[in-house]
Amino acid sequence: MILADTSIWVDFLRKSDDVLTDLMKMYLKRNEIFASSAVFGELLQGVRNKRENNIVNVLWESLPKVDESELFIKAGIISNKHKLYAKGVGLIDCYILATCANNDLALWTLDKKLLKAYDEL
Q1: How far apart are CA 79 and CA 36, in angstroms?
Q2: What are the Cα distances from residue 104, in Å, to 15, 17, 19, 82, 120?
Q3: What φ, ψ does residue 114 adopt, rounded to 5°?
Q4: Interval 23-50: pLDDT, tens
């Protein structure tokens, strides 16, 4: 099971990488991609028109959701414990890390700082 972060979704929605697009389609068909409100909140923050908004909302509604109870607390603990704020990893990214840890998910990201933090955890 996989949590695709915002960078993956953006590339997928823009169809900027054929390999990534094909992988995402495969994972989506297998129901292996889970949704997090933090990721979809970031996607909604960046929509440019009604069409994009509709696409993001349809995806949000159709995907299995992660358990997000107390994740911001866990994100703060992870950030503090690993001094991630000093490494340029913000609280939303720590939320994504906590989501993966709390739900036993692999993280799929193009963000090098986030990937390094994930590997260190």
Answers
A1: 18
A2: 28, 27, 25, 19, 15
A3: -65, -40
A4: 999 999 999 999 999 999 999 999 999 9
Which residue is it, tokens 């340029």? 88
- What is the structure's pLDDT at 117? 96
Task: Count Cβ atoms within 10 A of the Cβ of residue 2 and give its class: 0-12 exposed, 13-18 middle, 19 or more buried.
Answer: middle
Domains present along the chain, CATH in parentheses: 2-120 (3.40.50.1010)
- For the full predicted model, state whether its pTM sits above 0.90: yes
Distances, alpha carbon 88 to alpha carbons 34, 38, 66, 112, in Å: 25, 18, 25, 11
Residue 82 neighbours by CB distance under 10 Å: 16
Strands of the sheet containing 2-4, edge to edge, are 33-34, 2-4, 106-108
Sequence-separated (6 or more) residues with CB below 8 Å from residue 119: none
